[in-house]
Structure formats: C-alpha cells, structure tokens
Amino acid sequence: MVAFGPVLFIIGLLMSLLAIAMGLPAIADLATDNADWQVFAGSAAVALFVGVSLMLATKTSSRSNLNLRQAFLLTTLSWVAVAAVGALPFMFSELKLSITDAFFESMSGITTTGSTVILGLDHAPPGILLWRALLQWLGGVGIIVMAMAMLPMLSVGGMQLFRTEAFDAPDKVLPRAAQLAGGIFAIYLIMTGLCALGLWISGFNGFDAITHSMTTIATGGYSTKDGSIGYFNNPAADWIIIAGMIIGSLPFVYYLRVVRGDLSPIINDSQVKWFLIIVLVSVFVITLWIWDVSGLEGMDNFRHATFNVISILTGTGYVTQDFGLWGGFPITFLLCLMFVGGCAGSTTCGIKIFRFQILAATAQAQLSRLLVPHGVFIPYYNRKVIPETVSNAVMGFFFLYIVCFAALAAGLSALGLDFITAISGAATAISNVGPGLGATIGPTGNFSSLPDLAKWMLAFGMLLGRLELFTVLVMFSPAFWSR
How far, in Å, CA of 326 to CA of 293, rounded? Predict the structure, then answer.
C-alpha cells in the first residue's frame, strides 16, 4: 500500500505556507477598515493548525524519499488540499458563498482557470480580491515548479520534454529542479513587479495594478471588476497585459538562460516560433473578420482582436469586449483556440504547442511510410529524434483529453445545460481558460447560476486540465492501490 506519511508532511507544509499568505489580504482588509480581516486571520489559524499538526504527526517519515506512487498522490492531493483551504475565506467573508461556490472559486483560482461565481466584484472587499489574485499567482508559479520537480519523474502528460532536453536522466531531475526553482521564482517575481509598474504608469491604481499583474503573468484572468479589463477602457494597459500574457506563455526555464546571456533557446525553440506564428495568424484572421462587425476604428479593432485572441489562446480569460457579438465564425475559432494553450514549462494550460508539433511530426512520418512502405522515416522535434515513449505519451494524452472533454460536456448536458454552455463549459474547464460561450457563462456571464453538481464537475475538470490528466486519472486505476 501507499505510505501516506511523506505525502501528508508536504501537504501540511503547503497548508502552513498558504496560511502565511492569508496575512496579505488580512492586512488589506484591516487597512480599509473591513471586518473581513478577521475571516482571513481565523482561516489562517485553522490552516496553520491543521498544517502544523500534519507535519508533526508525520515528522518521522518526512525524510523518506518519495516513490513513484507517492509522487502521483502528492501532486494531486496538494492541489485539492490547497483549493480546500483557499475556499475558507470565501465561505466566511461577507460574500457568504456556499461550500460548492467557495471550492469552485478557489479551485478556479489555484488552477489559474479564472471562471468565477462571484457577482458584484466592483464592490467586493479588497481582501477577497487580493486573495483571488494570490491564489492564481501561487498556482501559476506552483505548476512550473511542480512540472520541473515532479512530472518529469512521473513521465506523464508530455512533460517528458524536460526529461529529454532539460535533464540528462530521471535520477538527476530533483537535484537540478531544486537549483532552478529559486531562479524561476525570482524571474516570476520580477516579471510580476514589472507588469504591475507598467499598469500603474498606464493609469491603474496601485491595488488594481498589483492584482492584475499577478493574474496576468500567471495567465489566470481573475479581475477586480465584473467587466474584466474592458471596464478600464485603457489601450496602454491592454498592450501591457498582452505582453504579460505572452511572457507567461513561454518556457520560464528559458528566461534563466536569457538572464545568463544565452538567447539561443528562446530564439531557436520551434514551439516558441509556432506559438508566435499561431498568435499572428489568429489575430490577423479575427481582425479581418470583425472589421465590419464591431464598428470600431482600425487600431481599436486590431487591439481588441489581439487582446481577446491571446487571452483565450493562453487560457488567461481576460476580455475587453463581448466576443460573443462578433459573429459565428469568431466564436467557433476562439472555441478551437481554447484547446491550444502555450508552451511547455509556462503558466498556461491546454494541450500545449509542442504536443501538436509532435503529433504532426508523427502523422507526417506515418503518411510517408504509406507512400514509401520500404522507406525509413523518423519524426523529429527541434531537430532531435522524438523518442517512441514521448510519441506514445503525447498520443495517449491527446486521446484522453478528447475523451475527458466529451465526458464532461455530456455530463453537463445531462444536468440540463444547453449545448453551447455545456460544450464551452467543458472546454474552458479542462483547458483552464475562464469564460465560456453564450449568455450564461460567456464573456459577460457568470458561473453562479449553474447547478451545484455542474460546478463540482467543472472543478474536477479544472484539476484534470491543470495536472495534465494522467496524474489524476492514474489514481482511479486499481493497480495504483495494489501491492
């Protein structure tokens, strides 16, 4: 059986760190004379008590190295535990969210999805708004560190890219990840600060600049306003956020090399090139289509098309306009972009660019074999031979992604949701995008009116998408729990 001691020790540590993070929104509420500071103080006390208790109870087993099954278990349970603890302030604040709504909001935050059930964000307490931004910011950097430290060792979901290119062998993953984690966190913090400074200079107040910079670099999309970024009607801020979303969509490990003076990885990496090509082509297509629909001037038309395309592609979920009014083609196009995502090793979700490249290279090799049966055709990625294990994992991931999306959409439809809401809700959850399509959960809508069971299903879909399917689904296998 799986030994839970080391797993619970680390989860207790994460809960303790989250309790410390609750001090920031408590200070924000206290500074504005909002009584919710007591809610954050009480929630922090509960989280700290439970976290320290878990650490003390499992202290003797904390020195054990994690085996494969413990790593799977830790990766999934840590996200669930953080979402559960993060839900406490939502439940007991003046918002008085139900358990379902609070967990949905917290899971949406920590997975950087950005779907919300809160109405009246314009008048919400500053502590709650800061807490939502903090959850997404921690979730953004957390997935990068976890991807480096855990997923290469697990060999799931396609993060083998790190194992095959960034690391020499699986047994070297953890030591090198420990060295890189501090550097990546520093880069993440600096980028967030620069984004906040840019937004503040563009006209945002200090609070809005900080919260939006957190959710921009994390490609999360939580805003302090019901109207999202469109509320501010600030072209300069729109371009700053566009730049921030693109920065958050590129591999963070490359930024460390850039700091050291090595620009070659970010320039030569084919997934970065293809990500930028997809951005340019998508923006061009949508700009042309809505030229006569929006009634805006040329530059405004281009800005709104660029912003919303990049926001959906990267899974950020900010909006400047209701793109549901642009017509049928843009809606369908943006629905397809929801599945794409950014680069591996970034804060984005979705299928990721490099998986499409590996699928395309594998399909091209197969077509060539059909045309020349006796020929030898080997698929390449970044001028390197794609290992068969990577190809199989990516194809398995793609298959499971479609199956999970279809099952989630069918389940939502069975609960009475209309076709557009069910399809886009499943897509936005499993791709961690944020807004869906249609009047209910579209850019100007909200997830609060959905049935409770639908919210739990969507929350599970968010977890699946954020942890790249295999990490969660493997625990439903009886073999995982057997000797």
Answer: 6
d(CA 123, CA 129): 10
Q: How far is CA 132 from CA 14, 108, 126, in A?
A: 17, 9, 10
Closest CA to 446 of 129, 227, 206: 227
pLDDT at residue 143 above 80? no
- pLDDT at site 245: 95
- The CA distance from 456 to 454, in Å, is 5
pLDDT of 79 strictly over 70 = yes
- d(Cα 368, Cα 385) in Å, to the nearest integer? 16
Q: What is the 8-class DSSP label of residue 93?
A: S
For the full predicted model, state whether its pTM sits above 0.85.
yes
Token pair recorded at residue 265: 């990885």
Q: Is the dihedral of CA 23, 29, 31, 33 positive or negative?
A: negative
Checking if the pLDDT of 446 tops 70, the result is yes
User: Which sign does the torsion angle of CA 371, 376, 379, 382 carry?
Assistant: negative
Q: How far, rounded to the nearest angstrom, does the alpha carbon of residue 151 sit from its chain's CA centroid? A: 15
Tally DSSP H helices, then E strands, for the chain. 24, 2
Q: Which two tokens stand for residue 434?
A: 């944020």
Among candidate residues 268, 271, 264, 280, the one with its CA nearest the CA of residue 250: 271
What type of residue is 408?
Answer: L
* Distance from C-alpha of 363 to C-alpha of 350, rounded to nearest angstrom: 21
Q: What is the pLDDT of residue 150?
A: 52
Chain segment 144-178, per-residue pLDDT in tens: 666 555 544 454 433 433 333 333 333 333 446 56
CA angle (141 as vertex; 56, 243 as ends), nearest 5: 165
Q: Whole-angstrom Cα distance, residue 422 to residue 416?
A: 9
Strands (E), 377-428: 380-381, 384-385
Q: Which residues is 381 bridged to in the sheet?
A: 384
